[in-house]
Write a structure and sequence with these properties.
Elements lengths: L8 E4 L14 H13 L4 E3 L4 E8 L2 E8 L6 H11 L7 E7 L7 E5 L7 H10 L5 E6 L12 H5 L5 H22 L3 H20 L11
GO molecular function: hydrolase activity
Function: Catalyzes the release of premature peptidyl moieties from peptidyl-tRNA molecules trapped in stalled 50S ribosomal subunits, and thus maintains levels of free tRNAs and 50S ribosomes.
Protein name: Peptidyl-tRNA hydrolase
Length: 217
């Protein structure tokens, strides 16, 4: 496997405004907000970069954390502006986003691939001219897979149930714990650890604790 570059820009996809803060579509921003807090970084609105941007030194290197303040379908405008100005290559970018094709309580990391109808990813790929950036796919589930009679647009713009919120938060915590590896360029190791820990937590939730089995009487 070719050597992987350290991540220099982490993007949390979201819609701007308080009415969207707790909605499923803002799951990527939940991660970047938590990351900035962990690292002691402060966001500042930067109109030239079309978003809220934080800079922090990690092991002597600059890490940029971005939350676009355009709407989702124009996310690429902010990503391109930051990447171009600071000379950050696509394979040095991690985009955290909500993922309909992954259930709540699951999280997948991958590089490149399709956009699965996600307008934020679609615009970033178009603006960068390549899909070959890293993605942290935070599972929110699809209304059909969750047995809900709800349109997709309506679904992503509403907050998850308390149970799903907790599962998403657990995944974000695992991602946060392994982010330092990505910043060192050990993305393969980080990916393996994230997937292993998420799957372990998933299986634990599917197995009732001793004494919790239902009573048939």
């Amino acid at each position: 496997m070719p050597a992987q570059k350290p991540i220099r820009l982490i993007v949390g996809l979201c819609n701007p405004g308080p009415e969207y803060v707790d909605t499923r579509h803002n799951a990527g921003a939940w991660y970047t907000e938590a990351l900035a807090q962990d690292l002691g970084a402060q966001f500042k609105h930067e109109s030239r970069f079309f978003g809220d941007l934080a800079r922090v030194k990690v092991q002597g290197e600059d890490l940029w954390i971005l939350m676009p303040t355009t709407y989702m379908n124009r996310s690429g405008q902010a990503v391109l502006a930051v990447a171009s100005f600071f000379k950050i290559l696509p394979d040095e970018i991690l985009v955290a986003h909500d993922e309909l094709d992954v259930l709540p309580g699951q999280l997948k990391i991958k590089k490149g691939g399709g956009n699965a109808g996600h307008n934020g990813l679609k615009d970033i790929s178009a603006k960068l001219g390549t899909p070959d950036f890293w993605r942290a796919r935070i599972g929110i589930g699809h209304p059909r897979s969750l047995g809900l009679n709800q349109g997709v647009a309506d679904f992503v713009l509403h907050r998850p149930s308390a149970d799903h919120q907790n599962q998403i938060a657990d995944c974000i915590e695992i991602l946060l714990k392994n982010t330092p590896l990505m910043l060192q360029g050990n993305i393969a190791m980080a990916t393996t650890r994230v997937h292993t820990e998420v799957d372990k937590a998933w299986k634990a939730r599917q197995t009732p604790a001793k004494g919790e089995a239902g009573n048939a009487a």
